[in-house]
């Protein structure tokens, strides 16, 4: 916590975008011929269906979320100062997806960049955006979590393809005078010793694309699910409790835990350690699966628009992902 701040970054707008095409658990059996079942996927993960973007790229998801935010806001695209896109599925290696989004939404006065922290991407981008606002130099920062996971999952691999979906969600950060509101505190961590268990082997400078990398399926997401599960349960729960303790928050003070939606069992374990009942946890994993950088803002958007999140509510955002990366952020909601 920085007690010398003059103002906080507050969330003043929110939006989301999900593609129309629905891929159900049964579709993995009927379309992809996998040996799996709705019962197995639901009981092990909590996922019933996910969305797939059939045509277009991550920037289309991200621009869709940004346009939805702007349609619900008085702010105009040309007023945006900076765009941060958290993603592991950029349109291409370069330019940054943020540049493509800037052009697609007409944010003619913005600079921007991509940030890669996998499933923790939104939390890392939110803290980065908040720091930019708190610097006093920029007033309107658009933070987007967007991933087209369907482009990096192998639909012959039943261990992983059932987990992921495509989506994007965005928040607008602006300065707020009341230090009680906004992005109050963040605890963020990385531990690169976790990289062997969740990564994409090829496409970067270590293993540039070649016939061999394609033949050996090295451009797909690789995950040792059991190992990641173990670390995610401990990591997300520990860091969520840490942010509660250092902000003197008891379970009763928290309106919602907004967890990354990777697996309902990881979410339940985190809530239990925090002393929270299911009613105090935002869940939409059943409809969207794991959309990587998009899960947390999308949950926040749906619950806000349903009238369940109100001004003054205490929200704990929490995530764990590849890297390893993990973190928790305390937000006091500021929109009426
Ligand atoms: N349908 C049916 N059976 C499946 C299956 C599927 N879709 N996927 C895997 N199985 C099988 C496995 O092959 C294994 O069979 P085996 O024992 O004969 O080898 C069996 O089910 C049990 O696998 P296991 O790994 O013990 O299942 P699990 O309870 O750990 O659940 C995950 C698997 C992937 C759902 C779970 O490990 C997980 O969620 N991991 C974390 C993923 C994650 O959150 N990643 C994102 C970053 S946080």
How does this model look, in words?
The chain is α/β, with parallel strands linked by helices and 336 residues long. It has 2 domains: 8-180, Thiolase/Chalcone synthase (Peroxisomal Thiolase, Chain A, domain 1); 183-332, Thiolase/Chalcone synthase (Peroxisomal Thiolase, Chain A, domain 1, 3-Layer(aba) Sandwich). The chain contains 10 helices and 13 strands. The model has no long low-confidence stretch (mean pLDDT 96). Bound molecules: coenzyme A. The site of coenzyme A (COA) has 20 residues, from helix 2, helix 7 and strand 12. Coenzyme A (COA) is lined by residues 36, 40-41, 44-45, 119, 158-159, 162, 223, 225-226, 228-229, 232, 262-263, 290, 320-321.
Total of helices: 10
Structural class by SSE content: alpha/beta
Write the CATH fold name of the largest domain: Peroxisomal Thiolase, Chain A, domain 1
Low-confidence stretches: none
Order of strands side by side in the largest beta sheet?
1-7-6-4-5
Bound compounds = coenzyme A
Could you say how many structural domains there are in total?
Answer: 2
Task: Tell me what the CATH architecture of the largest domain is.
Answer: 3-Layer(aba) Sandwich
**Any idea what the shape is?**
globular
Helix content: 25-40%
Rg to the nearest angstrom?
Answer: 19 Å
| Number of separate strands | 13
Biggest pleated sheet: 5 strands, mixed
Integer average pLDDT: 96
Q: How do the SSEs run, as a string of H and E?
A: EEHHEHEHEHEEEEHEHEHHHEE
Distance between the termini: 25 Å
- Corresponding CATH superfamily of the largest domain: Thiolase/Chalcone synthase
Name of the top-level CATH class of the largest domain: Alpha Beta
Strand proportion: 15-25%
